[in-house]
Amino acid sequence: MVQLTDSFERKMDYLRMSVTDRCNFRCQYCMPEDIEFRDKSHILTLEEMLTFAEACLQLGVTKVRVTGGEPLVRRGVVWLVEQLKKLGFHEVTMTTNGFLLQENLDGLSEAGLDRINISLDTLQPEKFAFITRRNHFSKVWNAVMAALETPLSPVKINAVAMRGVNDDEIVDMAKLTFKYPIHVRFIELMPLNGDTDGSRFRSLFISGKEIVERASKELGELMEIEPEDPAAPADEFKFEGAPGTFGVITPVSEPFCARCSRLRLTADGKIHPCLLTDLDVPVKDAIRSPEPMPAIHEVLWRAARIKPPAGLTLPEESRSRTMSQIGG
Ligand code: SAM
Ligand code: SF4
């Protein structure tokens, strides 16, 4: 089989598909409260997304993550997961804010979802309301607990680290790994939210290295875990005897561009070959063409060719799209 690769011989085998730009939360680092979403007429249908995914599969893309916006606000997303599995992807995963997860757990498990990542930045309800601008901590926490009782266990929890906001909870979050089979990962904050002068970003940013040091200072030695997938972005550790793991994702302090295997599809039909730039390649016309497979392949190769080399530094000015639009 022909394998999609970029100009620097990085294999592109991981698709992150944003099924909607909409969301039921308004996390401060992700979108403004008054964000205007794309008119629904611009958004791909789920069938069109499947057509795109199939073309990717034919070029050696084996993993797909369903994301957004909030993927569970998109009607039919459980069906989409089932179809992606039927197409033959080795791994179909989802990233969600957890608000609509509990009622979808059975459906997602039956559809064959392989793994779930739940975004949860704090264990304190009031702080949760401050960060997400929505007062829904208990619903998300209940979904985390419920997910642990399903075939989707162990679950991953992703927390965006912010100095002065949730860095006082590094230890409490790490302690979850002693009690539950939960993989807690802190993600370095990225300047993607319309914060144009960068000063807010600089005051909030906290590095993965500092997070690991602070957790191990309080809770004991963290043993490094060899990643199963060499392209995995997280540095994973374990406390002795803990059923869960603790990790950091460091896109800012240690960008993983050299081993980046990702491509992103936006809900409005554009391929984003790199999160650090605004480069995108429209693919909607190709999907809607009479011979979609060769047309999409041609666009995929074009997108792969413009994927920038490793070594770009993340500019502190934000770009014109938010994470929710690109597909985090
Ligand atoms: N709504 C879903 C969720 O929150 O899990 C999926 C989409 S969200 C854009 C995907 C991930 O991107 C979340 O874990 C979120 O915390 C992360 N994210 C959003 N903006 C970010 C930023 N500025 N820096 C770092 N991570 C960010
Ligand atoms: Fe919504 Fe996820 Fe962005 Fe929060 S991080 S606003 S939950 S898309």
Topology readout:
Blueprint: E1 14-18, H1 46-58, E2 63-67, H2 77-87, E3 91-96, H3 105-111, E4 115-119, H4 125-132, H5 137-147, E5 155-161, H6 170-179, E6 182-188, H7 199-204, H8 208-219, E7 222-224, E8 234-239, E9 245-249, E10 262-265, E11 270-272, E12 281-282, H9 284-287, H10 292-305, H11 323-326
Parallel strand pairs: 1-2, 1-10, 2-3, 3-4, 4-5, 5-6, 6-9
Antiparallel strand pairs: 7-8, 8-9, 10-11, 11-12
Helix pairs in contact: 1-2, 1-10, 2-3, 6-8
The chain binds S-adenosylmethionine and iron/sulfur cluster.
Residues 23, 29-30, 67-68, 70, 95-97, 119, 158, 160, 187, 189-190, 192-193, 323-324, 328 line the site of S-adenosylmethionine (SAM).
Give the key terms.
328 residues; alpha/beta; 12-stranded mixed sheet; binds S-adenosylmethionine; binds iron/sulfur cluster
Walk me through this protein's architecture.
The structure is a single chain. By secondary structure, the protein is of the alpha/beta class. Helices cover 30% and strands 18% of the residues. The protein is built from eleven helices and twelve strands. Helix 1 (46-58) runs parallel beside helix 2 (77-87) and helix 1 crosses helix 10 (292-305). The two termini are 29 Å apart. 45% of the residues are buried. The model has no long low-confidence stretch (mean pLDDT 92). Bound molecules: S-adenosylmethionine and iron/sulfur cluster.
